[in-house]
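Field log, afternoon session.

UNIT: design team B
ACTIVITY: writing a sequence onto a fixed backbone
BACKBONE:
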């Protein structure tokens, strides 16, 4: 009977696209992962993978073997997860991917209480605004906002976060406060460029209910919303950001929220839409106990978060 660790290495390598990926997922060195697969091939008496310096591909025997063992390995992992919950102790690694600002300001402060409840869980955070492949990077749960949801993922909404236009008192004293969406266009606007695809996140203007893209005076573009908020607090212009980021700045008086008057028919409007955050899972049919526990905890805590209201 082949060693279970060797079978696990083989399956993880194919799921992640490389032996190095399997090594990262299993917490071993790439050399050890390669040795595991070589040992498996010797025990089976056949080559499973054709390797080159740049790629790897399944042989015909490898395809057949993977089709048989992958579901078995998946069932074993699910059984272990469910059994840990029965005994009241969640165990193993919980790898969480999260958008940067939400991870810094919301998720990270909430996790210590969760880990205190489940001390045998090993939390691994992947805080990034880039695209995260949940399969290749072996992510258990991804937290992201609506605009970057991946098709085919199972999702559950966690929070709807208000956003505010803000500027520093110094900026408003020097340049005045815009009263309408049309006046806003003439101010120094600080816009966010999404790192994962380079898309410039233009502000949501409408006219008579239809999306409009008027010419803005863009003073600065940045790929980090925290940096843009700090730029605004230093008098650099007007920023549009989630309440969980600007809350402390407003409380300290470093930023002031702006309120625009609604325009009449035919006039430009600023549609201040909230940020909707979701928990995303890679398996629609089965969510591990450790993931369910984290989602339940976050839902409970986020409902009580004053900063999100």
């Amino acid at each position: 009977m082949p060693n279970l660790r060797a079978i696990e290495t083989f399956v993880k390598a194919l799921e992640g696209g490389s032996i190095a990926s399997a090594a990262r997922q299993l917490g071993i060195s790439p050399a050890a992962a390669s040795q595991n697969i070589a040992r498996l091939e010797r025990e089976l008496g056949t080559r499973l993978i054709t390797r080159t310096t740049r790629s790897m591909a399944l042989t015909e025997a490898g395809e057949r073997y993977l089709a048989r063992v992958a579901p078995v390995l998946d069932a074993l992992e699910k059984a272990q997860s469910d059994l840990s919950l029965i005994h009241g102790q969640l165990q193993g690694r919980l790898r969480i991917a999260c958008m940067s600002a939400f991870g810094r300001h919301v998720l990270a402060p909430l996790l210590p209480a969760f880990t205190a409840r489940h001390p045998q869980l090993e939390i691994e955070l992947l805080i990034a605004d880039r695209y995260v492949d949940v399969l290749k990077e072996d992510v258990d749960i991804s937290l992201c906002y609506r605009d970057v949801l991946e098709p085919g993922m199972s999702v559950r909404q966690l929070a709807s976060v208000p956003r505010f236009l803000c500027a520093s008192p110094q900026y408003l004293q020097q340049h005045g406060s815009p009263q309408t969406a049309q006046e806003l266009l003439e101010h120094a606007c600080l816009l966010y460029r999404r790192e994962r695809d380079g898309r410039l996140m233009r502000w949501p203007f409408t006219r008579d209910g239809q999306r409009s893209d008027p010419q803005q005076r863009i003073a600065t573009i940045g790929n980090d919303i925290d940096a843009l908020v700090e730029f605004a607090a230093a008098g650099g212009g007007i920023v549009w950001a989630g309440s969980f980021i600007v809350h402390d700045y407003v409380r300290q008086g470093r930023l002031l929220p702006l309120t625009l008057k609604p325009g009449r028919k035919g006039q430009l409007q600023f549609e201040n839409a909230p940020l909707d955050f979701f928990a995303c899972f890679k398996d629609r049919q089965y969510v591990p106990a450790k993931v369910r526990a984290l989602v339940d905890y976050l839902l409970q805590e986020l409902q009580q978060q004053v900063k999100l209201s």
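LOG NOTE: The chain has a mean pLDDT of 85.
NEXT ACTIVITY: expression trials, pending approval
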